[in-house]
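Re: that backbone. Tokens:
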């Protein structure tokens, strides 16, 4: 497979399955940022192995990659229980009503917004732009007049702060 075809295929997979793969990763890890990272790792792995893909049932193939990435992450982190194969299959089931998925996504977005609002300036603004509004670092730098490296550092630090906030909230919810 040529690089151009693989690039196009990756774009199609991301457009079609990004939300599904993120949902799987989030349901398995219960952590927004880990799910984000694992979603990206899933698509990178699929891209690297695109030549081995037979073209049949790409959805199932990507779900399987995502679940393995999550299971490996959970096994290596030793922080959470590893879900059973049955739990994963329920997660990947196409029977989930669209309304439930939308409600879950809205709840996630609200939780993300609330956590961003708990940060002090300038991390609050940077986190809202980057994680909530999904503006890339270059655009944030241009918008704020800050150096790109400064914005990238603020994103990195805000991510660590948000991760701690999410874990605190999980302790209270669980």
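Recovered sequence:
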């Amino acid at each position: 497979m040529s690089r151009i075809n693989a690039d196009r295929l990756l774009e199609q997979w991301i457009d079609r399955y990004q939300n599904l793969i993120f949902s799987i990763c989030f349901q398995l890890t219960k952590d927004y940022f880990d799910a984000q990272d694992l979603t990206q790792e899933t698509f990178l792995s699929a891209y690297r192995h695109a030549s081995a893909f037979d073209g049949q049932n790409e959805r199932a193939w990507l779900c399987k990659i995502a679940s393995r990435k999550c299971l490996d992450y959970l096994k290596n982190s030793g922080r959470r229980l590893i879900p059973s194969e049955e739990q994963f299959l329920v997660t990947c089931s196409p029977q989930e009503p669209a309304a439930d998925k939308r409600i879950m996504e809205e709840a996630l977005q609200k939780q993300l917004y609330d956590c961003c609002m708990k940060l002090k300036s300038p991390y609050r603004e940077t986190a809202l732009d980057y994680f909530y509004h999904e503006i890339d670092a270059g655009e944030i730098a241009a918008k704020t007049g800050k150096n790109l490296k400064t914005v990238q550092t603020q994103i990195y630090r805000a991510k660590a702060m948000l991760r701690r906030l999410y874990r605190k909230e999980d302790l209270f919810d669980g």
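The radius of gyration is 17 Å. The chain is about 80% helix and 0% strand.
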